[in-house]
Amino acid sequence: MGDAATAEFADVVRATLADPRGWAGAGFRMAEDATAGLVVVLAEGDEVDRLCFPYRTGGRFSCQNGPVVAINADRWRVATAQWTGDLATYRQMLVNHEVGHLLGQHHPPDPQCPAPGRPAPVMAQQSTELDGCLPNPWPLPDELAAAARHEEPLAPPYQP
Ligand SMILES: [Zn+2]
């Protein structure tokens, strides 16, 4: 690691999590602390696979596994063929999606795209398929409302 694409990782994470359009809009505040139990890391595929086990990330996917969000560096560098937005927006989506899992949020029920032409829910698996939805890096109003209700535990463990 340590190329130009990954050098700005911490700045992007910081800015994304502080953005009022993000989970901050559900009342969460990003605070950095070297002793924090929750971590967001960027790693190459083999390390992501290790951090994410028993999730199967196959060298390609990112995950949230307990207190760890592990983001795949290849995806960070180039996004995916299915993504129709730009790379900066993809990175914001990745951070908000995986941190959304950290806040207890789940993938929406199928169809994950509510209607073609609408913004995709941030918790939809946009890296894999947009299904006609518009690429969207920010939680939708109902996603913010769900997170603000705090019905799910933070940092959920592996869920088969
Ligand atoms: Zn997910």
Summarize the structure.
This protein is an alpha+beta fold and 160 residues long. The protein is built from six helices and three strands, in the order ααβαββααα. A three-stranded mixed beta sheet has the order 1-3-2.
| Top CATH class | Alpha Beta
Q: What value does the average pLDDT take? A: 95
**C-alpha end-to-end distance:** 30 Å
Q: With helices defined by DSSP (H or I, 4 residues minimum), what is the helix count?
A: 6
Strands in their spatial order, largest beta sheet? 1-3-2
How would you explain this protein's 3D organization?
The chain has 160 residues and is an alpha+beta fold. It has a single domain (4-148), classed as Collagenase (Catalytic Domain), CATH 3.40.390. 32% of the residues lie in helices and 8% in strands. The chain contains six helices and three strands. It has helices at 4-7, 9-18, 45-52, 73-78, 87-102, 141-148; strands spanning 39-43, 63-65, 68-72. Strands 1-3-2 form a three-stranded mixed β-sheet. Helix 2 packs across helix 5. It is globular. It starts with a helix and ends in a 12-residue tail after the last helix. Residues 97, 101, 107, 125 line the site of zinc ion.
